[in-house]
Amino acid sequence: MGAILKQLVGRREIPKDLREAFREGRRPLLPDLVRILQIAIASLSQAFICIDALDEFLPNDLPELLESLSNIVRESPRTRIFLTGRPLVKETIQRYFTKVVAILISPNQGEVRNYVEMRLDRDDEPEAMDKDLRADIVKMILDKMSDMWVGVSPVNVVYLLTTARRFLLASLNIEAILGEMTIGQRRKKLKEMARGSGLGDAYTATITRLKAQKGNRPRFGLQALMWVLYSERPLRAEELCHALGVEMGSAELDPENIPTLRTLLKSCLGLLTVEASSSTIRLVHPTLQEHLSLDPTLFQSSHSTIAEVCLTYALFGSVRDFSPSLDSAPSTMPLLDYVSFFWAEHAKKGMTEKVRMLAQRFLDIYDKHISSRLMELGYIRGSAIALMFMR
User: Fold this and answer.
1) Quick one: which of 387, 357, 359, 383 has its CA closest to 371?
2) Terminus of the chain with fewer CB atoms < 10 Å: N or C?
3) Taking CA 10 as the corner, what is the angle to CA 9 and CA 12, rounded to the nearest 5 degrees?
4) Contacts with 85 (C-beta within 8 Å, 6 or more apart), sequence order
5) What is the crossing angle of helices 237-245 and 217-230, to 10°?
6) Taking a C-beta distance cutoff of 8 angstroms, is the pair 315, 362 a contact?
7) CB within 8 A of 334, min separation 6: which ones?
């Protein structure tokens, strides 16, 4: 709600109520934000509030968000709401916006067919394909598709219920099939995919293929998934590459151990993707997080492992040589910003004797370490942003 309010007043005079709410550095509570937002909207002829991917919102907090939006619409009937998300939050939304109705639309199978044909044309092993197998692959994937729902209100709330995961299912299935090296193996995999009930089976098959890769690819793939799944904030591509390049117990980072982004993504077999706008790495779909969380044996000791990597990184000789007066982390060590702010969070969640020993070594030199400066600057910048918002 604060982000919506900031966008609304960002190019106008800051309302007096908003300046008062930030007095003495206090962060406004949700009722304050809703009240001020209603005041700001009242001065407009019309306002549009758009929120994407509502299904990714924290489930326990979603009702509070929807209730706030409902209050705004009730007090400001000229406000229009546009929400998108997966069908699983449809009933929750309807509890707060009773006039939302669902309209069934069908996905464009022609576009999916074009994608599948394009991927088959780019097959790395064309000799492991024949005309009949190709036709069976296309048919199976199209048969797996189902309808999508869109919710539309005749008054002032629009909710799009998206099921883009149908396209993701097509992608994972075809990658699993083309990952086999012979026509016979591919036809066997096709039958397995056809028997699968949905994304869960496709994810399981992809994880199995990931573990069966040669060399260090399984390690890179699983560790990358672990970092993205358990990191305290989204990681940029260069941060994740450096994290996977850390060798436990080493005194210095070996640049030759750092995987390229291409290697990292290839090792994950399409389960990770890069956000073009922010260069951050994320899971290919929120349902993957749900699937990975169901297997407690997949990422054992995740937080202690991440804490060890963070502390090892902070104790590298090249990092300890950085001047504590620097205003930002040097570009040569991109993971340092994340390490400085979040090593303790991971250590707290996964304390081991090894983590305790590394933490003690780090804390012994902390006052003269660049991380202490980065933490200090982080708090200063946070206060400065609040002051700028007040003005």
Assistant:
1) 359
2) C
3) 60
4) 53, 54, 55, 56, 93, 159, 160, 161, 162
5) 120
6) yes
7) 236, 238, 239, 242
Question: Which residue in 67, 71, 66, 68 sits closest to 54, CA to CA?
Answer: 66
Burial (CB count <10 Å: 0-12, 13-18, 19+), residue 372? middle
Residue 386 lies in a domain: yes
pLDDT value at position 54?
80
- What are 90-148's pLDDT values in tens digits? 788 888 887 776 555 455 778 888 889 999 999 989 999 999 999 999 998 888 764 34
Classify residue 51: in a domain, yes or no: no
Q: Which amino acid is at 96?
A: Y
How many domains are there within the chain? 1
All residues at 6 or more sequence positions from 46 whose CB lies less than 8 Å from its CB, including other chains: 78, 79, 80
Q: Does residue 7 fall inside a structural domain?
A: no
Of 60, 109, 53, nearest to 86 by C-alpha is 53
147 assigned to some structural domain:
no
The DSSP output letter for 48 is: E
Q: Give, in order, the Cα–Cα distances in Å from 187 to each of 100, 143, 250.
A: 45, 17, 46
Question: DSSP E strands: which ranges in the chain?
Answer: 47-51, 79-85, 101-105, 148-152, 157-161, 235-236, 272-274, 280-283
Query: Whole-angstrom Cα distance, residue 346 to residue 343?
Result: 5
SS3 258: coil
The per-residue b/e assignment along 257-269, b for 16 or more CB within 10 angstroms, e otherwise, is ebbeeebbbebbb
Residue 372: which domain range?
A: 302-390
Read off the tokens for 278: 């922010």
CB-based contact 323:378 (threshold 8 Å): no
Q: Which residues contact 279 (CB under 8 A, 6 or more apart)?
A: 236, 237, 238
